[in-house]
Design brief:
- This protein starts with 10 loop residues before the first helix and ends with a helix.
- About 65% of the residues lie in helices and about 0% in strands.
- The C terminus is likely disordered.
- The protein has 8 helices and no strands.
- The protein has about 170 residues and is mostly helical.
């Protein structure tokens, strides 16, 4: 799940992790990406979309070679492997991976709207992000405005046994 980056990766961890592992940590744990990692993530995104669109990997490799002519065959293989690591198997794609890509697109659009003082458009983009994550599904009701269950204090041990029984299932 993609999270908004909100923390800096410790230098020791950064040195120990490969570039693709840092990118994965960005999605999983919300770490900021350095510029070189962001550039590689853009290549991974392109490779992911190309391979996902193709029916076989041979055709995908040829298309990636046309998009990135400076990459060797070995580097193209690594790019595909890294994209697989970040987004899971291309031919078994999940909605989660596509949401990550779409969320990145919306975030770029949102930032552009803010820079150009287009606050109405920025608000609509945020609505699209909310919809992407199903925050306001009509059949589920508004998750943000959902009421919390009533919580009561008790010193009755039987009430606690009900809670532990539910957790075991």
């Amino acid at each position: 799940m993609s999270k908004t980056a909100h923390k800096t990766m410790p230098e020791e961890a950064r040195q120990q992790l490969s570039q693709v592992e840092r990118i994965k940590a960005h999605f999983d744990d919300g770490y900021f990406l350095e510029q070189e990692d962001e550039q590689y993530l853009e290549q991974i995104d392109i490779a992911f979309r190309v391979v996902y669109a193709e029916e076989n990997q041979r055709a995908a490799r040829a298309k990636i070679k046309r998009l990135f002519p400076d990459l060797s065959t070995k580097e193209i293989g690594k790019l595909i492997k890294d994209a697989t690591f970040v987004y899971a198997d291309f031919f078994d794609i999940t909605k989660k991976a596509m949401r990550i890509i779409q969320e990145k697109r919306y975030n770029r659009l949102y930032e552009l709207c803010i820079r150009n003082d287009e606050y109405g458009a920025a608000e609509r983009v945020l609505g699209k992000i909310d919809k992407l994550h199903d925050l306001y599904s009509p059949d589920k009701g508004s998750m943000i405005n959902a009421r919390l269950p009533i919580v009561r204090r008790t010193n009755n041990p039987a009430a606690l046994s009900i809670l532990t029984h539910d957790e075991e299932e």
